[in-house]
Design a protein that fits this description.
The complex is a heterodimer of chains A (219) and B (224).
Chain A: H1 12-25, E1 31-34, H2 44-51, E2 54-59, H3 68-75, E3 80-83, H4 86-98, E4 102-105, E5 119-122, E6 125-131, E7 135-146, E8 151-152, H5 161-167, E9 168-179, E10 198-201, H6 208-213
Parallel strand pairs in A: 1-2, 2-3, 7-9, 9-10
Antiparallel strand pairs in A: 4-6, 5-6, 7-8
Helix pairs in contact in A: 1-2, 2-3, 4-5
Chain B: H1 8-17, E1 24-27, E2 46-49, E3 53-57, E4 78-85, H2 88-96, E5 102-105, E6 109-111, E7 116-117, H3 132-135, E8 141-146, E9 157-158, E10 173-176, E11 179-184, E12 187-193, H4 199-204, E13 210-218
Parallel strand pairs in B: 1-2, 1-5, 5-8, 6-9, 8-10, 12-13
Antiparallel strand pairs in B: 2-3, 3-4, 6-7, 10-11, 11-12
The chains are: A alpha/beta (219), B alpha/beta (224).
Chain lengths: 219, 224
């Protein structure tokens, strides 16, 4: 699982570190990546796809200003796509982190995206059963982190990150500011440290949208 | 014959007139987003975006964008007093939980029973669904804003959608370049039409019966 929505919230330094390791060692590869989108430009997830680390994308919206990396891999049959409605994607991740194996949602009832899924009538309306999503790792971007892993986020960069932090076996966070325990007001904590395994201090993080607009190519 | 018709901005203006004071509203990417520009004076409307903001405002001046402050269309926005941030599960709880008063979406096709197709043009494309399938369930009213016909002139308002559905029986009102049409138990009911067109003119470019139930008003829309 990789946090971010469009150009906000992508943990680019973590992603690029992973790409560096793949280019040096050939690992990790054949990854299933869960993100709202499917990469933009030539950085972040798009760069992961371009170098051939990704076998499957689970996303809601693969279009972006430049989705060439995903589109090329998809048309070549190099990458599999599981398309999930955005709210269902969020709730499946939340359920994964909350220990709820399945739930019913009205979303997608009667559409192609509900094919083969159990449906049920509740109080006169039809709902589709969806299953939890869990991951081995979550990579997310935070604004502040303390030494016990409590997190805050910057504006709408929060998006999927608090859900993914819960749903992964190992959650790795890059934070713009790492402080001592006690320095984040407990009222302000968005993700409690119990969901976080590793925090890396990245004081000047890259911003995806700004990098895409600048035409920066990572790999 | 070329029919007189509303511009995209005029359709957005017309849709904006129906948004009541105090409403919580989600506007889809593209044409629906433009509705916010025409919000009538004196009304307070709170806009929701899927990526976790309630109470966002217009775009900032060029050069002052903060790319962590964007809407679902990935465009830079600003905050209104009283705005809030939240994560994606809370955002879609607002959507599916019936907390939004109105969602306005674009459409490839709308059927007379309220079925909507707006996410996939079939097997040849790489489809992208985003939040549309969630938005059509839960908002108290789901409206569509669209050209009356497709680029090739074929009707977008049909007896039954031929493209993959976004949702079944979910749309309650359609704002088009020619008309305002409600979707009722009887099917399409014509409410407003562009002045200079007859009911038959609108019917001729509509792929399902337009019912008449009460007066059909002229769409008097300013140049915007």
């Amino acid at each position: 699982m990789i946090g971010g929505f469009g150009g906000s919230g992508a943990p680019l330094e973590l992603i690029h570190g992973l790409i560096d390791r793949f280019l040096e060692t050939g690992h990790p590869k054949d990854l299933t990546v869960i993100n709202n989108n499917a990469g933009n430009g030539s950085i972040g997830i798009a760069a992961m796809i371009r170098v051939g680390m990704v076998r499957k994308m689970i996303c809601s919206f693969r279009r972006s200003s430049n989705a060439d990396a995903f589109n090329a891999a998809y048309h070549d049959g190099q990458i599999e796509l599981e398309l999930v409605p955005q709210g269902t994607l969020a709730e499946r991740i939340r359920a994964g982190g909350a220990g709820i194996p399945a739930f019913f949602t009205p979303t997608a009832f009667g559409t192609d995206l509900a094919k083969g899924k159990p449906t049920q009538d509740f109080e006169g309306k039809m709902y589709v059963q969806e299953r939890w999503l869990k991951a081995d790792y979550a990579l997310i971007k935070a604004e502040s982190a303390d030494t016990v892993g409590n997190l805050t986020y910057r504006m709408a960069a929060r998006n999927f990150a608090p859900l993914m932090a819960m749903a992964a076996a190992t959650t790795i966070v890059q934070a713009r500011r790492v402080v001592q325990a006690g320095e984040i007001d407990p009222h302000s904590v968005i993700t409690p440290g119990i969901f976080v395994d590793h925090v890396i201090d990245i004081p000047n993080p890259s911003q995806e949208e700004a990098m895409v607009r600048a035409g920066i190519v990572y790999a | 014959m070329t029919l007189p018709k509303l511009t995209s901005s005029q359709i957005a203006w017309r849709a904006a007139q129906d948004i009541e004071d105090g409403a919580y509203v989600n506007l889809g990417i593209g044409l629906p987003e433009r509705i916010a520009q025409f919000q009538p004076e004196g009304r307070t409307v709170t806009y929701h975006t899927e990526n976790g903001i309630l109470g966002f405002g217009q775009a900032p001046p060029e050069g002052e964008e903060d790319w962590d402050l964007i809407n679902a269309g990935k465009k830079a926005v600003t905050l209104e007093p009283g705005a809030s941030f939240f994560h994606h599960a809370d955002s879609f709880a607002m959507v599916r939980g019936g907390h939004l008063d109105l969602a306005v979406l674009g459409a490839y096709q709308v059927a007379a029973n309220g079925d909507l197709a707006n996410w996939s043009v079939g097997a040849k494309s790489v489809p992208a669904v985003g939040g549309a399938m969630d938005l059509v369930h839960g908002a108290k009213r789901v409206a569509v804003i669209t050209d009356h016909v497709a680029k090739d002139g074929s009707p977008k308002l049909l007896d039954a959608c031929t493209l993959p559905l976004t949702g079944k029986a979910c749309v309650t009102r359609v704002y088009t370049s020619l008309a305002v049409i409600d979707i009722t138990d009887r099917g399409f009911v014509l409410r407003d039409k562009v002045p200079g067109l007859s009911v038959d003119d609108v019917q001729a470019v509509t792929g399902a019966t337009l019912h008449i139930d009460g007066p059909v008003c002229d769409l008097n829309v300013p140049e915007v």
